Amino acid sequence: MSLELLIDILIATVPLMLIFATLFAFTTWLERKALARIQNRIGPNKVGIPCTRIGLFGLGQPAADGIKMIFKENIVPRGADRLFHLLAPILALIPSMLVLCFLPLDFPWLNENSVKAFLLDGAVIFFFAITGLNTLAVFMAGWASRNKYSLLGGMRAVAQMVSYEIPLVLSAVIVVMMVGSLNAGEIAGAQKGGNWFVFSPWGFAAFVIFFIAALAETNRSPFDLPEAESEIIAGYFTEYSGFKFALFFLAEYIAMFAISGLAVTLFLGGGDGPGLAVLPWLSVIWFLAKIFALIAVMIWLRGTLPRLRVDQLMGFAWKFMLPLSILNIFVAGFAWHAEQLDNKFIMVITWLISLAVLYGAASGLNQLNRGKVRPREYKYAE
Amino acid sequence: MNEVIAFWILSAIAVLGALVAVRKRNLIHGVFALLVFFAGLSGLFLLLLAEFIAAVQVLVYIGAVGVLLLFAIMLTERVAGDDGRRMTSRGWSWGLVVAAAVFVLLLLSLWPVQQLSMPKAKDPSEFLTQISDPGYDGNSERKRILNSVRTIVNRWSN
Prior knowledge:
The complex is a heterodimer.
Chain A: H1 3-38, H2 61-71, H3 82-98, H4 123-131, H5 133-144, H6 148-179, H7 184-189, H8 201-217, H9 229-232, H10 242-267, H11 282-304, H12 310-341, H13 344-370
Helix pairs in contact in A: 1-10, 1-11, 2-10, 3-5, 3-10, 5-6, 6-8, 6-12, 8-10, 8-12, 10-11, 12-13
Chain B: H1 2-23, H2 27-47, H3 51-75, H4 92-117, H5 124-131, H6 138-157
Helix pairs in contact in B: 1-2, 2-3, 4-6
């Protein structure tokens, strides 16, 4: 292996890992602060610069948490599968870290000759293929712990991730269809100059479906059934402590960054934003800012919405999201043909019709499902 | 040279994964070993510059088939599956004979290709880099391989 190639690969990958790990630490602080403000608390505000009384709004909290996690005791249950118990958090972290390189983050230190994974033909399909591995890690953790709550959490997670992967991919298909490419760089390039996909009826519907499915994929509230504290302790990582737990935590947040990054690439124009003509490196800042906007919405939803029930969760995926995303593909197909005609009037008509169709379908599906969701019938309790 | 090293590492991973998948008594371990085999295979596809097939290999085999197998195991009663039953069936010796015969046939089919038409290819990995060459003509290659199979059949029938 030539030295230049090795250096190129390191330049392309190491900043990604450093930046997103730092953002992870900042996000945990942000989330705790925001949740605390939503619940009328103050949140972490003590840990700042060591040996002084300077609090810095508790910005030192992630570092303190990290040190605590590293020095905590590592406990493995007696009946557990020791090898898989060790491998599961690592397997959870690897895919979420790996897919970061498919985000079209055009760092200023990358030139034409650098290794750019996002310029791979089929970067989007690689993204979905590799994020699918998270399911296996979750199942591995749930099974290896030899604890019924862990196994229940793992089963819930697998069922949920498999169901929500379908609307996730089907809504991404629309963008792939409109651009005609699976290349993440080309998809971001096609939306230059404020021409984002979210600013069209079909794109907006696809974005909403994608975002909801992404919440479910990353086990975020209101879809956090696999780790529902009030039902199954902590779900699949009940039996994890110390650094292994920290790895799960890290993997979950990196997966959040990755999936928000894909949402930004597909629907929010990638690194597109004002001021790019003067300062090209602003694209990275815009990209990260958009990711953070999505993360902020996720935190906001976590502080606001109650958790779904298992039957509601499955019903929502299969009876509402799946039909709507399939219909949306047809709407986008018609819109694509209308765009080829290059006529303003036809475009306006297409917009109005697709708005009406999508709104009608969403409210119709809502009505259709409403009658069937009855109050829960208890089998084993009174 | 890089491709040759990568080929041997990936094929070692694949073969080891397949062996462990067959030999493990514990079903879940077996499934994960099978997934390692699939991952090695997808790496080999990448080495052949077939990105799409590599991605689909991960998506379909690791993502879908693996999860399906885990679901099936999850929904059966004995999750661990580590009871003391024997792993092999009674006709295992015949299976071994057939497997060995297929293996020998595959080896023989590689040998005349080297000898007759491809003096350059010393080992299978070089053959792989050759067919991933953009100037590679698949049609004439197919004819060559068919010819070599014919020579083997002739050799065996005589």
